[in-house]
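In practice, a research group might receive sequence data for several interacting partners and want a quick structural hypothesis before committing to experiments. The following worked case mirrors that situation: the sequences arrive first, and a predicted assembly follows.
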Amino acid sequence: MTYQLAAPLLDACVLGIVSGEEVYGYTLTQRVQEIVDISESTLYPVLRRLQKENLLTTYDRPFQGRNRRYYQITPQGLSKLEFYRCEWEIYQKQVSIMLGGKLND
Amino acid sequence: MTKQEFLKELEKRLRHMPREDREDALRYYSEYIDDMNLPPEADVSARLGTPKEVAKNIINSCTKKHMDGKGLKEKGKSLWLIILSLFVSPLALPLALAIAAAIVVAVIVIILAVFAVAALVVAGPFLLIFGVIKSIGWLISGIFSIIGAIIIATLVIKVIGWIAKKIAGIF
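A structural hypothesis for the assembly, expressed as tokens:
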């Protein structure tokens, strides 16, 4: 992928994925990696920060004799995600207009 | 690098972080490595990066977050985390100490310089007045010595004249 995910967009994508399905660290990384090129240690600091900002919480579930930590979006996380979606709508429209060369229409 | 080696090294690199943050990170990576389903002796760092890189990533992101936050408490924290990030690399520790020592020396030199300038400013007028008084003293003593010299010279001349007259009277 030519384009990189800047920090706020990566936050938004993580919130989006977590709001849609039950994920733990490994599967979340897999999901993001299916679309953009990130290293396997990119997401931990992001997840930790989103947790500290109360946008995500975790819960543990036993798996093969150990606990697996799942991520869950909070109500604040949902409203933040809604904000990111609106911002993205505007941004992607503007970028599309520029790319299409139709800025002056 | 096996899972155990990786986690041990990562723990070492994060030793200056708050315990709760360190344990959370170690737990995440322990679980992540389990989920990768690698053979027991596989090189974990080939996929995750070295523990040093992973630790740097974690500490830097904390620093950045606190930089964005406003307020004195946050700023204090971010300064603390910048110092912490210096400790990630063992090489950076002596370097940090050396820089700290240099800063301390520089501060002492500056304080001494300030004192010297202040002393000069305070003492300057006194030295000037003292110097003027001293030179007036020298001037007065000079005048007195000239007067004294003239008196002595005239006395000597008179004595010599008197002796000369006596000698002349004899012959």
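Before designing any experiment, note the following. The mean pLDDT of chain B is 85. Residues 86 and 92 of chain B are 6 Å apart (CA to CA).
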